[in-house]
Amino acid sequence: MSTLKRFLEDTLIYGFAAVLPKAINVLLVKLHTSSLSTSEYSVNTSFYVWAAYFNVVLTYGMETAFFRFFSNEKDKGKVISTAFVSLFSSTLFALITLLAFRNELVALLGFSNPLYFNLLVWISILDTLVVIPFAYLRVTGKSKKYTLFRVLNISIYAIFNIFLLWYLPNSEWMQTNYQKIIGVQYDTQFKEGYIFVSNLIASSLTFLCVLPILFKFNFRFDFALLKKMLSYSWPILVAGIAYTTNENLDKLILEDWLGKSIMGAYAGAYKIGVIMSLFIMAFRLGAEPFFFNHAKDKNAPATYALILKWFVIVGAFFTLLIVSQVNIIAQLFLGSKEYYTAISIVPIIVIANLFLGIYNNLAIWYKLTDKTKFGMYFSILGALVTVGLLFLLIPRIGFMGAAWATLAAYFSMLVTSYFIGQKHFPIPYNIKDIAFYLLLAIGLSSLSFLQFNGNFIVNCLLIFVFLIAVYFKEKKELLVLLRKEP
Question: What pTM was estimated for this model as a whole?
Fold first, then answer.
């Protein structure tokens, strides 16, 4: 079986573990936007913005460092134990520090309810402690167990969301028994808080599930190895902070400048745009171990180039599909009409996420060459573009400025990474074909949204046009990929 086909199989296996939880999370948008006003939804959004920052800081690039050193070091057990002991120690220190200064941090981060900050801390701590066990399952090919834990986590989260936000408030009998068991009445002013409680329950049970894996580790801490891993990972930490800024600063600024209601509507519509992230995450989970494991293959650069081309083809298809059917998708995912005020950001955010996915493909050159500092530089560049354009555009064109800032940031990272990467780790990307599919998808998407928005038949024809173009250009490769080997 060819390496490309093996890659596709790995992507499908690990992609299921990524896509299903993410897909369930996207489906919960309907419940959340039906249960919460745009102002309440802004509180939920702010919570998970800070959760993203906490996640990046608490893991400080150790997951990627783990993959890198696990593939290089002969003593695999030493890599596993050193990475976990490092994360456990730093997480324990972070827990003590965050709780000691919680009053100051609650005010600094703008939490109206101090309990929300406590929930944020414990969710972040528990999620950090399962990073290395999950990475271990991925790198050792234990895909079924990894998938089981990921699906279990999101299933518990979803069940408690449905119970606390839908079933409980609509059942008098359940509310009475809830008060008897919990000791307090169901609080309709705490609706967004029930989302966080559901998350904490899911994270706690997931941590309990991975405990048996931790007990199997033969703990041997190697300080010299840790120094090398930290040297590799700290640029990833900085890059992660910058990336999180690219992804989330717009929402914090919109809340401060335009109010909670506008920010909530923007965040709700943004969720439709990031459906593209389902595809990107599935790809990344399969791609990252594959890239490292095949880095020494003779034909690795050609394989990487082929993978990027097909990533762009599939990503361009999803872009056109989402944009052309945005009204149908909005009806499926947005519960209240007040969220529709920001629906115009969807095409921009979808294309921005496609650019981000291409950038993630291109980024393999600095990971394989241990020049992770370039990832930091690119992300900082993106953050600077984001911040600059947010301050420039939001006062002029409102929330649309935030969407355009996101697009510009990811495009600048993509272009810069490509040109610098070709100097350090040349890969024969087919730029002509990639540009063709990108321009075709963007052109058809623009035509669909601006001229035929809501016209189901015409939009389906536009999708068909794209697929026909792919078929005629890639007919030979499609036959090779689909051919069954004896």
Answer: 0.81
